[in-house]
UniProtKB/TrEMBL annotation:
Matches recorded under Gene3D superfamilies: Aspartate Aminotransferase, domain 1 (3.90.1150.10), Type I PLP-dependent aspartate aminotransferase-like (Major domain) (3.40.640.10)
Gene transcribed to yield this protein: bioA
Site (Participates in the substrate recognition with KAPA and in a stacking interaction with the adenine ring of SAM): 20
Protein name: Adenosylmethionine-8-amino-7-oxononanoate aminotransferase
Names of the cofactor(s): pyridoxal 5'-phosphate
PROSITE patterns associated with the record: AA_TRANSFER_CLASS_3
Species whose genome carries this gene: Caulobacter henricii
EC number of the protein: 2.6.1.62
Region forming the signal peptide: none
Keyword hit for Cytoplasm: yes
Key words, A-Z: Aminotransferase, Biotin biosynthesis, Cytoplasm, Pyridoxal phosphate, S-adenosyl-L-methionine, Transferase
Gene Ontology biological process terms from the UniProt entry: biotin biosynthetic process
């Protein structure tokens, strides 16, 4: 740690266990003391342009005054109450607004605090949907190579099994069926054959629509999603879209499912739900799924209820974030960012080791042939004045929709420089 390391970091460092981190060898993290717009302010006063919007959450930029005002107002009145037996305006308004925004009859929101827990709840809903209808034996899930759905034990089982994050735990939890995403008629036929064999054991198909995010920003088309809808219906299986990354405009439509014109039976939301201010997630079910839980039988109810579920402060932030989507400027912002990412990253295609450059909505990706040294690259990006944290084989940008053009240019320039296609003298 350097001379400018703040005291709190020096004294606390021995006691904090950091995420995805080999604590013995990792470089120290960057001490952040403030945020504004698309920038992080470090303890030594330097500002970094944030290329990631804090793991894709801060879609309107940091400290948005409208979200801040909603938080101030709510914190004075009621920061939290339990949701068992009590109701409050922020959650009820949010549930109604999500139902209005989501296509089809995805109308029934169950709130939680993290994405992983929302996925677990969606998985429970799917399992119990079949049980409640008297169908037995549908105890497994079908998910896809390249997928990521969280770090908790059950969500690990539906992540890509080869991918380094969770492969250590193979055998700990029941194995799910992991397949290749169908990308053409042959792929759909192969999955159809798999489901003909194992479909009666499957409760639901689980997929991140259009972009497999944490698995490497892998793209697929709307045809894939339509094929999954057809296959799910043909084999009596539910379809769950995990829109925790893609939801709220990131891919260019408010929800990725809208690009395919189909709806899943359950959708999970989190990340940008509160505009990057507080933890909140939701599993939103269709009328049919919700209907399977309506009964005279108490056993047919969904037995779930996280302590902090539907936290009023978080719901107030989410409502304020939804307000900011209402005027539609996010659409032109995502288009503006998309164009800048395409032109700004394209030169990287000729860089050594680069195998692909791709852009969808406000997501820009430079993929390398092999995994990149994350810690070293983060440090070099900090020297360039930007905050970019590569993942596996990809360097990617997912900035706030509000990022000003000059900051966006700094991000793409930094990626070009680290990829080795631009030298310091060139601007
Ligand atoms: C981040 C993410 C999750 C997990 O969310 P957490 O809040 O980290 O638990 C699940 N699914 C997708 C698609 C994600 O991007």
């Amino acid at each position: 740690m350097s001379a400018t390391t703040p005291d709190w970091m020096t004294t606390g460092a021995a006691h904090v266990w950091r995420p995805y981190c080999q604590m013995q060898t990792a470089r120290p993290p960057q001490p952040v003391v403030a945020t504004h717009g698309s920038r992080l302010v470090l303890a030594d006063g330097r500002e970094l342009v944030d290329g990631l919007a804090s793991w894709w959450t801060a879609c309107h930029g940091y400290n948005h005054p409208h979200i801040a005002a909603a938080l101030h107002d709510q914190i004075e009145r009621m920061p939290h109450v339990m949701f068992g037996g009590l109701a409050h305006e922020p959650a009820y308004s949010l549930a109604r607004r999500l139902a209005d925004l989501l296509p089809g009859d995805l109308n029934h929101a169950f709130f939680a605090e993290s994405g992983s827990v929302a996925v677990e709840i969606a998985m429970k809903m799917a399992l119990q949907f079949h049980i409640n209808r008297g169908v037995t034996g549908r105890t497994r899930f079908l998910s896809f190579r390249g997928g990521y759905h969280g770090d908790t034990l059950a969500t690990m089982t539906v992540c890509d099994p080869e991918e380094g994050m969770h492969s250590l735990f193979t055998g700990v939890m029941p194995a799910q069926v992991i397949a290749d995403l169908p990308r053409d008629a042959a792929g759909e036929a192969a999955l159809d054959a798999l489901l003909a064999q194992q479909g009666s054991e499957i409760a639901a198909i689980l997929v991140e629509p259009l972009v497999q995010g944490a698995g490497g920003m892998l793209l697929h088309g709307p045809d894939t999603l339509r094929a999954l809808r057809r296959l799910a219906d043909a084999h009596g299986v539910l379809l769950i879209f995990d829109e925790i990354f893609t939801g709220f405009g990131r891919t260019g439509s408010l929800f990725a499912m809208q690009a395919a014109g189909i709806e899943p039976d359950i959708v999970t939301l989190s990340k940008a739900l509160t505009g990057g201010s507080l933890p909140l997630s939701a599993a939103v079910a269709s009328r049919r799924v919700f209907g399977a839980f309506l009964s005279e039988d108490p056993e047919a109810a969904l037995m779930h209820g996280p302590t902090y579920m539907a936290n009023p402060l978080a719901c107030a932030a989410a409502n304020a974030s939804l307000d900011l989507f209402e005027d539609g400027t996010w659409r032109s912002d995502v288009a503006r960012i998309s164009a800048a990412l395409a032109t700004g990253l394209e030169p990287c295609r000729s860089a050594p080791g680069v195998v692909d450059v791709r852009v969808l909505g406000a997501i820009g990706v430079v993929e390398f042939a092999s995994p990149v040294p994350v810690g070293d690259l983060c440090a070099r990006f900090v020297d360039e004045g930007v905050w970019i944290r590569p993942m596996g084989k990809v360097i990617y940008l997912t900035p706030a929709f509000s990022i000003p053009d000059p900051d966006l240019a700094l991000l793409t320039r930094a990626v070009r420089r680290i990829a080795g296609v631009e030298t310091a003298a060139v601007d």
